[in-house]
Amino acid sequence: MTEKHQELLEEARRLLTDADTERDVEEVRVRFLGRKGEVAALFKQVPQLPPEKRPEAGRAANELKQQLTTMVEQAAEEVAASRKQESARRPDPTLPGIRPPRGSIHPIVQVMDELVDIFRELGFEAVSGPEVETDWHNFEALNIPPDHPARDEWDTFYVTDRLLLRPQTSPCQVRVMEKRKPPLRIVAPGRCFRRDTEDPTHFSMFHQIEGLMVDEEVNFGDLKAVLHMSLRRLFHQDLEVRFEPDYFPFTEPSAQLHCTCVNCGGEGCRTCSYSGWIELLGCGMVDPNVFKAVGYDTERWTGFAFGMGIDRIAMLKYGIPDGRLFFQGDVRFLRQF
Ligand SMILES: [Zn+2]
To answer: 152: domain range?
Structure first.
């Protein structure tokens, strides 16, 4: 192969490398392999050479033609393939769009919102407080001084000696009462924490809603009416309620509220341990010591307070036997709500 041939090959290779479209490749083909192209010119020179050099020159020109043809064909294929890829990447506006996965409101939050709506209709305002609380708001102002045995019941996680993750939403009451004067009607929904070994009904993180009403001449009958009405609304059932005496440091008298089983309507089933009743929440009349801690006149004001576990209510409402499912983040479970 002559130097001239080598140069032509190099030139063709360079032009084909730069070729982006089929038209670019075609231009290269015409320039080298066309009827008036470089190769045709070489063939034309052959008859003018001395006879003994003609066969060699002809063979060389043929070989060059072969090589150039292969190069051009390859380049044409590459350009076509990349154009195909390009059009595959380009969005097709005629196709239906890809629907992004849509989340939904967590079942616990749904129940929380529903409770807040029900209490709002009864004149209660929703408030919130910090999840990291002071010992004062969580214990002392609620009539639970240091070393009080009741503290064991609310054993929680401590950030420092005086700061803790709240084990109940009750400190919200204290925070509101410190700032406002009666009459008051508030509910405080939120997240709480406690040191508990997890099982189907106990979690180290859980949700509560706390209620407080303070006014002149508030009595136990008001408490019963508010709870009875709100539970009927929540479970969409004509259920009955009853009180059982209990003890809480911040209420006196204190009670557990039971309602007829939402699963069997009082007949007896596994959910209610065949008693027909379910223990639902703790409540009572606010202890005067709590009012004293926030500077309320205990002669003038009386009030009631209650607190219920939202997770337990959600379990009852949706018939879920293991509450841990709420917090495991399994989308197959959560998608059902
Ligand atoms: Zn039952």
So the answer is: 107-334
